[in-house]
Amino acid sequence: MTPPREKTETRPTIHIKKMAIDTYRENVAYLHRECPLYRAEGFQALSKIIIRANGHHIYAVLNVVDDANIVSPEELGLAAQAFHQLDLPPGSDVTVEHAGTPPSMDAVRRKIAGERLNPEDFRHISRDIAENRYSRMEIAAYLVASGQTGLDRDEILHLTRAMTESGERLNWQEPMVVDKHCIGGLPGNRTSMIVVPIVAAHGMVMPKTSSRAITSPAGTADTMEVLSQVELSPEELYRIVRQERGCLAWGGKAHLAPVDDILISVERPLGIDSAGQLVASILSKKLAAGSTHLLIDIPVGPTAKVRHMQEALQLRKLFEYCGDRLGIHLEVVITDGSQPVGCGIGPVLEARDVMQVLENLESAPHDLRQKSLRLAGRVLEFDPDVRGGYGYGIARDILDSGRALEKMRAIIDAQGKPLAPFTLGTLTYDVCAQEAGCVTMLDNFHLARVARLAGAPIDKGAGVDVFKKLGDPVNIGDPLYRIYAEFTASFNFARTLVEHATGYQIGARDAVQRQYVEF
Amino acid sequence: MTPPREKTETRPTIHIKKMAIDTYRENVAYLHRECPLYRAEGFQALSKIIIRANGHHIYAVLNVVDDANIVSPEELGLAAQAFHQLDLPPGSDVTVEHAGTPPSMDAVRRKIAGERLNPEDFRHISRDIAENRYSRMEIAAYLVASGQTGLDRDEILHLTRAMTESGERLNWQEPMVVDKHCIGGLPGNRTSMIVVPIVAAHGMVMPKTSSRAITSPAGTADTMEVLSQVELSPEELYRIVRQERGCLAWGGKAHLAPVDDILISVERPLGIDSAGQLVASILSKKLAAGSTHLLIDIPVGPTAKVRHMQEALQLRKLFEYCGDRLGIHLEVVITDGSQPVGCGIGPVLEARDVMQVLENLESAPHDLRQKSLRLAGRVLEFDPDVRGGYGYGIARDILDSGRALEKMRAIIDAQGKPLAPFTLGTLTYDVCAQEAGCVTMLDNFHLARVARLAGAPIDKGAGVDVFKKLGDPVNIGDPLYRIYAEFTASFNFARTLVEHATGYQIGARDAVQRQYVEF
Hints:
The structure is a homodimer.
Chain A: E1 14-19, E2 21-22, E3 28-32, H1 36-41, E4 48-53, E5 56-65, E6 75-79, H2 80-86, E7 93-98, H3 105-112, H4 119-130, H5 136-148, H6 153-165, E8 178-182, H7 192-202, E9 206-210, H8 220-227, H9 234-244, E10 246-250, H10 258-270, H11 275-288, E11 293-300, H12 309-325, E12 329-336, E13 344-345, H13 347-358, H14 366-380, H15 391-400, H16 403-415, E14 427-432, E15 437-442, H17 444-453, E16 463-466, E17 473-474, E18 479-485, H18 488-500, E19 504-507
Parallel strand pairs in A: 1-6, 3-5, 8-11, 9-10, 11-12
Antiparallel strand pairs in A: 1-7, 3-6, 4-5, 4-7, 13-16, 14-18, 15-17, 15-19, 16-18
């Protein structure tokens, strides 16, 4: 029921109280049942309300309280996130009214009915989501509807534009700003932390802003945080990139495409994924981050996010179609996603792998080095002065000469020392082979899950260190991987999981499943 | 992340505290950020958790508290609904663990991908929803997926069975138990309160259990509550029906198809509707209520739930297909849904209309009387002793002779006097015609919305009293309807709405849109 617009009447006010309750991305407000406002407005628990003051407003979900010690009948309690968004001192006077269904839900209902939406519809949906007018169930309805009926490629284009416009945009004042992005699903795979220093050492501008892990055991931001600070304001980023040509920061402080973060907070726990939403999500973030040239990495493998070459090709076309029309120079590479890249899974372990590669150590994971060099080579070829096919050689020279390591140290210095010294968890458990043979299959999902249960990414020292990879010979009792944990409860969770399944298949040498992917 | 099953380990316990916070249909638990359990388990705000004690468990959503005055680090706070569901004394010891995604979400994801689900899938989904394992966004995903890809008619059958099995079933110990149900969308239309006394007076068993209004201005339960008590236990219902052959009660106390209530609590605010869900919802409730014979009323009209005859016919086939396979004798009638039935909209006003019809008053709304007699006639024809086509005449005799009124009084006595005397709201406002002519269109949705804003159904004396119906001649200044309200804020809401639109169209006599529906 949408409330009518009020004309002359002035509404009664109530003053706000901050409640130290963390409700994550949901705005929650608390009203006492005996509050005169509650009765008069006919609110019910879980009603959506608009809270207004000084021309500013927020949306919230209402909880009804029967205990004056929690909230008195004279106050409106606001949980931490709602209080923060309203941004007023405690005790401020506000008005409260029914919020009703966001107007753009009409467009979502049309999508549910199979209709095609226009640019205006996507703009309205984005604006309403950015304003927190959508409840989580309304967002779920939108996501399922647009995933299922499917968005056609023009709709994805409109959606990307609308999501980009929902937030701030970074402006690096540079003619060429390069970036790379992996669509995810592969544990380890921290190539960005090697590609950025190589490309920046070459002199190209590569300001990498990443997210934190949501369902994976580590994101680039979580891993970089082991080495330096990552929560930097746009002004700090501008300064660092002017000085070093590159950075490796968390994107959250820059408010880039905030709608994307809200959608992801529903999409991930639901475990639903759609190609259209994926493309719009990545491109809107990159456009907002000011990228002009973008390399997209799509790993393909039986336990990766994309399982078949055909699917990868469809996704590639979609990226290309949208990228071209959004004025971003975009290239897509399809890579081997049949197993984790590198050895470590979890922030401290992955940071170790990255530094070993940058330091050119003998022990450095070869696959992480190779993949990073190939990706860096492709990014370097965005430079008009680099001849096609010569990027890889240049990248290798920069890495082998130690210039990449030097650049990484400079970036770490510029971003600031880490907030705490993060070390490996002290609780360890080796998962060993029960039979002899060759590793024929590694389950990316299972290893990621073990690392998550062990505590990653919240416990930075938790995770999994992989000893055996595809094709490696093993004997009975050989350790396949080691679990690291910081806390006993998490340690036991992870151990219980591996009792049921290791995530490995051991078999004959000729049964090794290899995904041959060239780029 | 699904938690592994624990084997031998015993988990740490925490004692529960009741929090007087009403979170409606959502279980919410509160844990202090400094609580050792919180840290060890790696919970985050909005994590889903399982709370266990004595072999009993509930699911809840976690809110994280930073104020020991709300919840101390030694306690787990439970909001009212969660506390009630767990059903343990305050201070009881419980364990808490990650709940993860409900296992049947796999089936929902398959449905999103367009697959057909089997009976087992629907049983698992129903069980998980009944156990509160689904968050509201997961329910939204399920509803959109099954509405959009569509359920085929066998899937609807499976879903109906699964939903029926999710709760209790009433057993009237009678060979024939009749019922009627309107799919809704028409304001007024309180025919059940006339049909039940007629049919019960004839001697057939008609125990009517109804819901309360969710998005409409009054349900049968809300209206009956003006005349008698409606919150009756199954035992009380058995006693009343043994004595009177009929009842008019709220179904909520009998736990019939509880999954249906949960689905509706998400479906309605989202404003999404699917034929499959509608049929499964109605049939599962009726099966659980022990009905053997059921008359379904589908009103068709430009502002009704079903707008075209073709749609009504599709729905009729679907009801027939499922009803036949579920062993319920089912008949469908398609009726005129072009305007409200009766004059009053809102509990007190609708109760007035019903009693006028039963009392055979001159002032009784003719359309409500006619429609009730037709429906009652069709229900009476379920009786093998009633010759086809003779039901209407029998119904009219029972009504005209005063036997229906007598039966209604007996049912009211048996159910008990109302909890309070409900009277019409004292704030009134007449909405008048701005032009002369004939009423050519009445907008059901708009009138329902005016009545809702005026306070119905929570304020029983609030609503709309309709003076002019389709085809009636009007002069400038003639009152079209009167708004009744009990509280000023609601009164002003309703008045502001009608300033923009009355919900009436006035035009030439020959422009009257009539839906000719025979049954």
